[in-house]
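Reopening this ticket.

The earlier resolution said the output was attached, but the attachment link was broken on my side. Pasting everything inline this time so it's all in one place.
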Amino acid sequence: MRYKITGKQIDIGEALQTHVQTELGTVVSKYAERPTDANVVFSKSAHEYVCEATIHLSTGLTAQAKAHATEIYSAFEACCEKMEKQLRRYKRRLKDHHRDRSEPVEILGGSSYILASDNAETVAEPETLQPIIVAEMETRIQSLSVGEAVMQMELAGAPVLVFRNESKNGVNVVYRREDGNIGWIDPTA
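Inline output:
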């Protein structure tokens, strides 16, 4: 597994980097067969240290955790505990689905656009109905089952996830509803 351990405007020493690699490696190897890379970022917010960790697995899952503490090692330990809890839930759900993924998740490329919001100061009618594109980026659309998409969305803490449905080869959307349930959009052909 590749590690990228950095600090935002703080210096992290070799001892902390070694500690992160051994502890995170132990947690990840316990629950995941083929982790690809881990990104751990330490920063300081007022009097607290913040640790943010992101782990990418070969199955396409991205697990994220974030923790705060007054000491940098305590922040990492709390973050590591959250990561372990996510990976444990992920593994349990995979077992519940009775399906082991032997191949990595297929990823399709796509374009993602950021559109300019309507400015409240300009009350006049716009000249065209075409939105103004502020930025254009590449995005990844994973090929997943509906259950895996819901799991991926929950583990990432995202409100919505766009994915390609493996069973129908169509683009689908899962999202968190205001009532706490999960919505699924499956367009007809």
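Reporter confirms the inline version is readable. DSSP finds three helices and nine strands in the chain. The beta strands are 2-7, 35-45, 48-57, 62-69, 107-115, 133-144, 160-165, 171-176, 182-185.
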